[in-house]
Amino acid sequence: MKHRLSNIREILAVIVVTGIITVVPYIYFQLQEGHLLGMKPEIPVDTVEIQKSNAEQLNLEQRRDMIRTGEADVERISLKTGNAYSLYEARKQCYRELCKIPALKMDIDGPVQREIDISPQLLVNAKVPSYSMIIWSGSLEIKDIPYKIVLDEDSGKLLSIQIADENIKEYEKLQEVFEKELEEYFYQ
Amino acid sequence: MKLSWKIFRNTILLVFFALSLGGTIMISMTLKHSISSEIMQEKKEIQSMQRDMAVLMANDSRTLYLEESKVLELVIETLNENWRAEGRQFRIRDKEGKILAYSGNNPFVDMESPGENKLKYTIYQEQKLYYMQMTLAVKFTNDTVILDKCTNITSIFSLRNTQLRFFFIIMLSVGILCAVLNFLNMLWISKTLYQLQDTVVKMQQGDLKARVHSNSDDEIGVLAESFNNMADRLEKDILELKEEARRQEEFVGSFAHEIRTPLTSIIGYADLLRRKQLEETAYFTATNYIFTEGKRLEGLSVKLLDLLVVKSAVRDYTVLSIRKLLEDSIGTMQSLLDEKEITVVRELDELNVRADEQLMKTVLINLMDNARKAVDIAGRIRIEAKAEGKKVRITVSDNGRGIPTEEIPKIQEAFYRVDKSRSRKEGGVGLGLAICANIMKLHGGEIQFESGLAKGTKVTLLWEGAVNEAQAK
Fold first, then answer.
1. Which residue of A lies nearest to B26 if distances are taken between CA atoms?
2. Per residue in B396-444, pLDDT tens?
3. How far is A108 from chain B (nearest CA, A)?
4. Which of B5, B15, B55, B145 to mutate: most A Cβ within 10 Å?
5. How far apart are CA B176 and CA B180, in angstroms?
6. Chain A residues touching residue B79 (CB < 8 angstroms)
7. Where in the numbering of this chain does the Histidine kinase domain appear (chain B) (predicted)?
8. Among the partner residues B43, B62, B168, nearest to A22 by beta-carbon distance
9. Cβ-contact A41, B35 below 8 angstroms
10. Same domain, A73 and A137
11. Fewer Cβ in 10 A, N or C end of chain B?
12. What is the value of ipTM here, to two decimals?
């Protein structure tokens, strides 16, 4: 009888200790959560100060590279309007510049100005925030071929023309011609 | 409580404790790491938002002709649309707490503006969902706005809860599995221990032959072997004690018998003398019996005294010539030997021995006397003495009637006589060989018997008593 009581006591003690060992982690995590939820710490941060100066202005070459490479560090912010152009002016400028690329045959097949679907964007280099520019980017269709275009607001020059649909007939050949003519146009 | 149960109990507790501690540390570290990663990610995000604001302000040409606050409002309006499109959860306030832009959805908490070049963050719970909010002050030339960025981090805490559930199930399963395996292992290991326990109980109940059968060479196996050795030794000692007790009992019985026999004769003849007037011949016979039996009693007491003296004798070892020792002993016995015309053949090496002269003489005289009693008229006794390394070997052999082989182990017991009537007739009391055996034991030696019926008897004395010449000088 004495032994049985002692055994029951032992078993109960084991169950109690096991229970404590099992419950302690839950209690610990509750305490940890309480601590996490209550705190409002401050951490140091580098503040960004943008001072626009001529020295930090991107040249045309750099602007084109920024568009072409499509760097991961480049952020795009959609704007309501540009600094230099309104949407009407931007379309007009865009039309004018597209006409300078002979292969597009804008004067024969090109759309009317309002069919040029473009919007302004601010491009910011995340690593060097001072390196930023406003572009007009969008699309248009010439003789059933969709194009993506980018216009630089500062210079009013086209920075990029690309055929949007890679599946069209003679895509590579056409793209090559555009590249060549764009290169000539760029250094005019 | 059984040992195996104790092991089971301790294992389960130990495994639970170890798993609980390890699991808690691991889950806690995972949570901290996830939160740290989230803080870093959010810090980058809010810095990116701050940068967007700053760049947009710097690039906006309206700053040339509009107030900064007006331009800021327009910039915020632009960013509000951009950030909403990107799915960011944010809130922009001015210093007074007026909300300038709000993404909606996530709840925000009000936090004070952090210090310069610092951001503040907090983690909070809203309707069972966890959020992290970061607050950063964005300064312009004249204005300062407070940017709040909020992220739902419920997944981190959900992961923690899932890990906890898994951890609990694993802890329970592994703990029980380990404990059961260890319990079985313990049963196997402690098999010898249980055998040992059973054996102890059997021995406690008087089974001195019970032993543990173990092939194990671990500590428990060694313990079992030691226990078996101890049991062997104990059994031997107990048997010896029993044998000693039996001998003591027999000794007392024999002693009583040896005393009663002559006393009966003495009392009987004395009573006869007291009650009757006997004739001269009968009178002589009666008094002769009384005298003879009295002498026997005296002899018995002398021998008993010898036995007691020998047991507690103070040894006086000296270096003796073996030849002289034997010749002196033969000389003492010579008249008795002559009575039976016994021839003594000597074959003695010239050697010196270390022994107690008187005690060793007693041994030799006893042996020669026994030989004398054993041989018939014109019998022969052969005495040899030689050294075997450090040992001395003296052999006394006769061509007498011999001793039955089965009697040999008992002949050194006190009062034991092979042929009781004949021995008594010869005047023996059965103590001679017991005395000899004790003397040899005192010399660290032994006494050996070789005999058989009608084959004569050969008694050998053997002890480490040989002395070389240098030692003798």
1. A25
2. 999 998 999 888 888 887 777 777 666 666 666 677 888 888 889 888 9
3. 37
4. B55
5. 6
6. 77
7. 254-467
8. B168
9. no
10. yes
11. C
12. 0.73
